[in-house]
Write a structure and sequence with these properties.
Largest sheet: 6 strands, antiparallel
Radius of gyration: 32 Å
Order of helices and strands: EEEEEEEEEEEHHHHHH
Shape: elongated
Number of helices: 6
Strand order of the largest sheet: 2-1-11-10-7-8
Strand content: 5-15%
Structural class: alpha+beta
Length: 318
């Protein structure tokens, strides 16, 4: 016997979880085993709704005096009976259903797309190697003693462990929520974002040195925040099918809260270091200095002047 219609059980994002054929009218849907369509939902009554066809090709869905009733999303208003078409969704309990006939015209076949570049394991490996090289290089140029160079691998190991844990957590969430881990994609997004932050910070650091523009440190902080927000947005996109706007707002708010906390801790640290001299831990070639500074003789002369002033103040205090 050919089905008269199909009852589709929908997921959170209107994706079809199951299709149940209808062989008689009216048909009953509920949690009971004597229902025509059995719904595994504790918030659905044993006989929750009755569905019957109308002359205009639509269907009448009637609530059978249940506790939780029925509604038509996105509205949460309860209705006793409603007329629905093939694209209308009915919610009963925590289940969403849709009624369609065998003659319903489905969309055309979608063309398979090649795997996106950032989802490929090779792309993840390339980004990871680039990040590792940058971390090792940064540790190398920051060393001031020969014996410290034997320890430059430790920052790289720490970074690798932290990144692996971060990627694994996101992949586990993706597997749990959406059924796909997307480990390579998450790995590429994280490594590429960290590479972008490292290169941006280095570029602004050299520009700050070249033009003696200390305010560029604030620009570096903001740039890091923008990159981190975009990284979180891309990872949320991999794990969620919510709207881009919601995911973008979530990523921005998370970044703002995180960076505000970091800024607060940095400010508290500056108060503790008040009175100490700040200096750059890495040396840069003089060729990058594009502004005229004072001569060594003038620097030494200013230091001697300050020394005489301090000595005079010390004698006065005695």
């Amino acid at each position: 016997m050919e089905p008269l219609a199909f009852i589709e059980i929908l997921g959170r994002h209107d994706d079809v979880l199951a299709r149940h054929p209808v062989h008689r009218w009216p048909t009953l849907a509920g949690r009971g085993y004597d229902a025509d369509i059995i719904l595994d939902d504790p918030f659905v009554a044993p006989k929750h709704i009755q569905i019957e066809p109308l002359e205009n090709g639509r269907f009448r869905v009637s609530d059978l005096q249940t506790v939780n009733g029925i509604c038509l999303p996105p509205s949460a208003s309860r209705v006793d009976s409603t007329e629905v078409g093939p694209d209308d969704v009915v919610r009963l309990g925590q289940t969403q259903i849709r009624v369609r006939t065998p003659s319903y015209a489905v969309g055309p076949e979608l063309k398979l797309r090649a795997t996106a570049l950032y989802r490929r394991p090779l792309s993840f490996a390339a980004a990871a190697v680039m990040l590792l090289v940058l971390v090792l290089w940064g540790a190398w140029v920051s060393t001031t003693q020969p014996e410290e160079r034997a320890l430059i691998a430790y920052p790289a190991i720490g970074m690798a462990v932290a990144v692996t844990i971060w990627i694994s957590i996101w992949s586990l969430v993706g597997r749990t929520v959406g059924g796909r881990a997307n480990f390579a994609a998450h790995g590429f997004v994280v490594c590429a974002a960290m590479v972008a932050m490292a290169l941006t910070d280095t570029l602004l650091d050299y520009l700050s040195f070249s033009f003696h523009a200390t305010w560029l440190a604030s620009v570096s902080f903001v740039a890091a925040g923008v990159i981190l927000a975009y990284m979180l947005y891309r990872q949320l996109r991999l794990n969620s099918r919510a709207s881009r706007r919601r995911l973008g707002i979530a990523a921005v708010l998370t970044t703002v809260v995180g960076f505000a906390s970091v800024a607060g801790l940095e400010k508290a640290s500056e108060w503790q270091r008040e009175g100490t001299q700040n200096y750059d831990g890495s040396l840069k070639p003089p060729i990058f200095l594009l502004v005229t500074g004072i001569t060594p003789e003038a620097f030494v002369g200013e230091a001697q002047r300050l020394k005489r002033k301090v000595d005079a103040m010390a004698k006065t205090d005695r």
